[in-house]
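Marked as duplicate of an earlier ticket. Keeping the data here for the record.
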Amino acid sequence: MNEGVQKNTLYVGGLAEEVNEQILHAAFIPFGDIKDVKTPLDQATQKHRSFGFVTFLEREDAASAMDNMDGAELYGRVLTVNYALPEKIKGGEQGWAAKPIWEDADTWFERQQQEKEMLRLQAEQRAAMEAAEDLHRKKMAEEREGEKDDADAKDDPMTKAEAEVLNQTA
Protein backbone atom coordinates (compact mmCIF):
# COMPACT_ATOMS: atom_id res chain seq x y z
CA MET A 1 0.00 0.00 0.00
CA ASN A 2 0.99 3.68 -0.09
CA GLU A 3 3.40 4.85 2.57
CA GLY A 4 1.11 7.82 3.37
CA VAL A 5 -1.87 5.61 4.25
CA GLN A 6 -2.79 5.55 7.94
CA LYS A 7 -3.55 1.91 8.67
CA ASN A 8 -5.29 2.62 12.01
CA THR A 9 -7.64 5.28 10.64
CA LEU A 10 -10.55 4.56 8.33
CA TYR A 11 -12.36 6.98 6.04
CA VAL A 12 -16.12 6.34 6.18
CA GLY A 13 -18.06 7.97 3.34
CA GLY A 14 -21.75 8.08 2.48
CA LEU A 15 -23.04 8.94 5.95
CA ALA A 16 -26.69 9.88 6.33
CA GLU A 17 -27.52 13.23 7.96
CA GLU A 18 -28.80 11.48 11.10
CA VAL A 19 -25.45 9.82 11.78
CA ASN A 20 -23.34 11.51 14.43
CA GLU A 21 -20.06 10.56 16.09
CA GLN A 22 -21.81 8.42 18.73
CA ILE A 23 -23.72 6.42 16.12
CA LEU A 24 -20.56 5.99 14.03
CA HIS A 25 -18.70 4.83 17.15
CA ALA A 26 -21.46 2.32 17.94
CA ALA A 27 -21.40 0.97 14.36
CA PHE A 28 -17.64 0.31 14.42
CA ILE A 29 -17.04 -0.75 18.07
CA PRO A 30 -17.80 -4.45 17.36
CA PHE A 31 -14.51 -4.64 15.41
CA GLY A 32 -12.21 -3.46 18.21
CA ASP A 33 -11.20 -0.66 20.55
CA ILE A 34 -11.68 2.76 19.02
CA LYS A 35 -9.27 5.59 19.78
CA ASP A 36 -11.15 8.43 18.04
CA VAL A 37 -14.19 9.22 15.87
CA LYS A 38 -14.49 12.46 13.89
CA THR A 39 -17.14 13.80 11.53
CA PRO A 40 -15.85 17.09 10.06
CA LEU A 41 -18.50 19.81 10.00
CA ASP A 42 -19.48 22.03 7.12
CA GLN A 43 -18.82 25.57 8.33
CA ALA A 44 -21.96 26.98 6.72
CA THR A 45 -24.52 24.41 7.87
CA GLN A 46 -22.74 23.06 10.98
CA LYS A 47 -23.69 19.55 9.83
CA HIS A 48 -21.21 16.82 8.97
CA ARG A 49 -20.10 16.61 5.35
CA SER A 50 -21.39 13.02 4.85
CA PHE A 51 -18.09 11.44 5.82
CA GLY A 52 -16.11 10.70 8.94
CA PHE A 53 -12.98 9.07 10.32
CA VAL A 54 -12.70 6.18 12.76
CA THR A 55 -9.30 5.54 14.37
CA PHE A 56 -8.73 2.13 15.95
CA LEU A 57 -6.06 1.28 18.50
CA GLU A 58 -4.99 -1.78 16.48
CA ARG A 59 -4.33 -2.03 12.74
CA GLU A 60 -5.90 -5.48 12.58
CA ASP A 61 -9.17 -4.09 14.00
CA ALA A 62 -9.19 -1.34 11.37
CA ALA A 63 -8.60 -3.90 8.61
CA SER A 64 -11.43 -6.09 9.93
CA ALA A 65 -13.80 -3.11 10.15
CA MET A 66 -12.94 -2.04 6.62
CA ASP A 67 -13.51 -5.54 5.23
CA ASN A 68 -16.89 -5.85 6.97
CA MET A 69 -18.27 -2.31 6.72
CA ASP A 70 -17.32 -1.31 3.16
CA GLY A 71 -20.59 -1.58 1.23
CA ALA A 72 -22.68 -2.02 4.40
CA GLU A 73 -25.80 0.06 5.05
CA LEU A 74 -26.18 2.55 7.87
CA TYR A 75 -29.42 4.54 8.19
CA GLY A 76 -30.38 3.54 4.64
CA ARG A 77 -27.13 4.71 3.01
CA VAL A 78 -24.37 2.49 1.62
CA LEU A 79 -21.01 3.18 3.28
CA THR A 80 -17.65 3.48 1.58
CA VAL A 81 -14.86 2.47 3.94
CA ASN A 82 -11.16 2.83 3.06
CA TYR A 83 -7.91 3.52 4.80
CA ALA A 84 -7.65 7.26 5.44
CA LEU A 85 -4.94 9.33 3.81
CA PRO A 86 -2.99 11.71 6.04
CA GLU A 87 -4.36 15.23 6.32
CA LYS A 88 -2.90 17.61 3.79
CA ILE A 89 -2.44 21.25 4.59
CA LYS A 90 -3.69 23.20 1.60
CA GLY A 91 -2.85 26.60 0.20
CA GLY A 92 0.08 29.00 0.24
CA GLU A 93 3.72 28.07 -0.03
CA GLN A 94 3.69 25.84 3.05
CA GLY A 95 -0.05 25.67 3.67
CA TRP A 96 -2.55 28.04 5.21
CA ALA A 97 -4.44 25.81 7.59
CA ALA A 98 -2.07 26.35 10.51
CA LYS A 99 -0.79 29.88 9.87
CA PRO A 100 -1.93 33.27 8.63
CA ILE A 101 -2.07 33.85 4.89
CA TRP A 102 0.37 36.80 5.00
CA GLU A 103 3.09 34.57 6.45
CA ASP A 104 4.06 33.47 2.92
CA ALA A 105 4.01 37.01 1.52
CA ASP A 106 7.80 37.44 1.64
CA THR A 107 8.53 34.21 -0.23
CA TRP A 108 5.82 35.08 -2.76
CA PHE A 109 7.35 38.53 -3.39
CA GLU A 110 10.84 37.01 -3.62
CA ARG A 111 9.63 34.49 -6.18
CA GLN A 112 7.93 37.27 -8.18
CA GLN A 113 11.18 39.29 -8.17
CA GLN A 114 13.18 36.23 -9.25
CA GLU A 115 10.76 35.57 -12.10
CA LYS A 116 11.00 39.20 -13.27
CA GLU A 117 14.80 39.05 -13.12
CA MET A 118 14.81 35.77 -15.05
CA LEU A 119 12.60 37.28 -17.77
CA ARG A 120 14.84 40.35 -17.97
CA LEU A 121 17.97 38.20 -18.32
CA GLN A 122 16.30 36.04 -20.96
CA ALA A 123 15.32 39.17 -22.92
CA GLU A 124 18.90 40.49 -22.69
CA GLN A 125 20.29 37.15 -23.82
CA ARG A 126 17.84 37.01 -26.73
CA ALA A 127 18.82 40.55 -27.79
CA ALA A 128 22.54 39.69 -27.58
CA MET A 129 21.99 36.54 -29.69
CA GLU A 130 20.06 38.52 -32.32
CA ALA A 131 22.81 41.17 -32.43
CA ALA A 132 25.47 38.47 -32.85
CA GLU A 133 23.48 36.85 -35.67
CA ASP A 134 23.06 40.21 -37.41
CA LEU A 135 26.79 40.87 -37.14
CA HIS A 136 27.55 37.42 -38.54
CA ARG A 137 25.16 37.97 -41.48
CA LYS A 138 26.80 41.32 -42.26
CA LYS A 139 30.29 39.78 -42.24
CA MET A 140 29.15 36.95 -44.51
CA ALA A 141 27.55 39.45 -46.90
CA GLU A 142 30.75 41.54 -46.92
CA GLU A 143 32.85 38.47 -47.67
CA ARG A 144 30.58 37.54 -50.58
CA GLU A 145 30.79 41.11 -51.91
CA GLY A 146 34.57 40.97 -51.50
CA GLU A 147 34.71 37.74 -53.53
CA LYS A 148 32.70 39.34 -56.36
CA ASP A 149 34.97 42.40 -56.38
CA ASP A 150 38.04 40.15 -56.54
CA ALA A 151 36.61 38.16 -59.42
CA ASP A 152 35.92 41.37 -61.33
CA ALA A 153 39.46 42.64 -60.86
CA LYS A 154 41.52 41.96 -64.01
CA ASP A 155 44.79 42.18 -62.13
CA ASP A 156 44.01 39.12 -60.06
CA PRO A 157 46.42 36.29 -61.06
CA MET A 158 43.82 33.59 -60.48
CA THR A 159 41.32 35.35 -62.66
CA LYS A 160 43.94 35.69 -65.42
CA ALA A 161 44.89 32.00 -65.15
CA GLU A 162 41.25 30.94 -65.32
CA ALA A 163 40.68 33.13 -68.35
CA GLU A 164 43.73 31.65 -70.16
CA VAL A 165 42.56 28.08 -69.48
CA LEU A 166 39.09 28.91 -70.78
CA ASN A 167 40.56 30.55 -73.90
CA GLN A 168 42.77 27.53 -74.65
CA THR A 169 39.90 25.07 -74.48
CA ALA A 170 37.64 27.15 -76.64
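See parent ticket for discussion. Residues 101-153 form one domain.
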